[in-house]
Specification:
The protein is an alpha/beta fold. The chain has a single domain, classed as Rossmann fold, CATH 3.40.50. The protein is built from seven helices and 14 strands. β5, α3 and β6 (109-112) form a beta-alpha-beta unit. The longest helix is centred in the middle third of the chain and has 17 residues, at 89-105. The chain is globular and about 40 Å long.
């Protein structure tokens, strides 16, 4: 049996070390974690061609949504109320179109950090533009409390994982089709699941950062690929 194709909506960069031209990238740690799980990562170059986005997603068996810059408040009907970083409305629209198509097809999705936030926005939710407790979430390791028996907890094999956190925004108003299955001690929503789809999960932390040495975080990628194989 061939390896399942896991689409990673990518990013553009004007430069990269050792490259003469602008590049399209998907983040090596994400790809490595997918490959360790037996999947084949496929980076989808950013585009505003919605038909091309949907056609590419249609050929794949699962999806990983990356971390990255802040989501534009215009994507959820708000205006900027805090200092934001790396906002790119082109990428917002690109990822939302890809994500909605993947949900329509009911393929497994692992949405990470910014991807977790995009998942909520794409389904009608809103974001906290800057957490009052940002120092507890910005480039630090901390515990997360997961609902026992949730998809995230089962994939990770624990309901209190140690995770690497790197963000200053978070879910505010939860989208109707999502349920909260993980929180931090300050109340921040750390993990969500789609209530109707077979396996669509979002995590606010970066499992790819520690997955090589931590089977709990690698477990999210293992479960994603296992479900993409079915």
């Amino acid at each position: 049996m061939s390896a399942p194709l896991i689409v990673i909506p990518g990013r553009r960069s004007d430069e990269a070390q050792g490259q003469r031209t602008p590049v399209v990238s998907g983040g090596r740690f994400y790809a490595d974690a997918v490959q360790r799980a037996g999947g084949l990562p496929v980076v989808l170059p950013p585009t505003d061609n919605h038909d091309l986005i949907r056609a590419t997603v249609d050929r794949c068996d699962g999806m990983v949504l990356l971390g990255g810059g802040d989501v534009s408040p215009s994507s959820y009907g708000h205006t900027e109320r805090a200092r934001l970083y790396g906002v790119n409305e082109f990428i917002d629209e690109f990822e939302i179109v890809a994500l909605r198509r993947a949900i329509e097809r009911d393929i497994p999705i692992l949405a990470i950090c910014r991807g977790h936030q995009i998942l909520n926005v794409a389904l009608g939710g809103t974001l906290i533009q800057h957490l009052d407790t940002t120092p507890d979430h910005r480039d630090t390791m901390h515990d997360v409390q997961l609902v026992p028996g949730s998809r995230v907890a089962l994939a990770m094999g624990t309901h209190e994982p140690l995770v690497h956190s790197f963000h200053h925004q978070a879910i505010d108003e939860l989208a109707r089709d999502l349920s909260v299955v993980g929180t931090f001690q300050d109340g921040t929503i750390e993990a969500v699941e789609h209530t109707a789809a077979t396996w669509v999960v979002g995590v606010q932390w970066h499992p790819e950062d520690t997955a090589e040495d931590d089977p709990h975080n690698q477990g999210l990628f293992m479960e994603l690929v296992a479900r993409a194989t079915r």
